Amino acid sequence: MLCYKDIKIKDEKLDQTFKQLLNIKDAHLFFSNQAYQKERVKGKLTNVFYGVLTYTPKACECCGILNNGNNIIKHSPKPSDIQLLPFQEVPTILRLFKQRFLCKECHHTFSAQTYYVAKNCYISQPLKFAIAVDLKKKISMKDIAARYFVSFK
After folding, report:
1. Could you tell me where the beta strands, DSSP code E, fall in 88-148?
2. Where are the domains of the chain?
3. What percent of the chain has pLDDT above 90?
4. Which stretches does DSSP call E strand in the chain?
5. Tens digits of per-residue pLDDT, 69-100?
6. Cβ distance 42 to 7 under 8 Å?
7. Predicted local confidence at residue 1, as pLDDT
8. Sign of torsion, CA 135 139 140 142?
9. Closest to 48 measured CA to CA, from 72, 71, 22
10. Are 68 and 50 spatial neighbours (Cβ–Cβ below 8 Å)?
11. Count of alpha carbons within 13 Å of 2, Cβ hemisphere only?
């Protein structure tokens, strides 16, 4: 398992390749040259992509104060395992290091956000969409859950 210091330097070619492969259009999310590994996650061999999500926030999420450059500071990134669509019947996750921010005015911390995954959620939007499409078909919820490696509850 890689840590943040191993992947914090962007690799332009691999960044574009992984973004096209995973269909990610967020400019704030990037990949390094060590952005892919096969690991055992919960006993299953899993494709793991490592990404970093960072940007400069415009304002604090809690108190709403505008960022003038020194009242919202970057904290250490927090890793989140985002579940992606399986690739060739193999579970796939994006281990996303989300930048955390600290507001000096209200002392509230918050994390960077992306359209690719909803706030406080660990399932990607494309995976949610694929599950919703399969729910329209005559397939049981347990079969859909097994296909996408998610819980049926």
Report:
1. 90-98, 100-103, 109-111
2. 4-115
3. 58
4. 29-41, 44-53, 72-74, 78-87, 90-98, 100-103, 109-111
5. 888 999 889 999 999 999 999 999 999 999 99
6. no
7. 67
8. negative
9. 22
10. no
11. 23
Mean local confidence (pLDDT), 41-53: 92
DSSP 139: -
Query: Is residue 65 within 8 Å of 102, Cβ to Cβ?
Result: no
- Confidence tier at 49 by pLDDT (50, 70, 90): very high
Residues with Cβ within 8 Å of 82's Cβ and at least 6 positions away in sequence, in order, are: 93, 94, 95, 96, 116, 117, 122, 123, 124
Structure tokens at 73: 């500071």
Edge-first strand order for the sheet with 29-41 is 29-41, 44-53, 90-98, 78-87
Burial of 146 (0-12, 13-18, 19+ CB in 10 A): exposed
Rounded-to-integer distance, Cα 146 and Cα 69, Å: 47
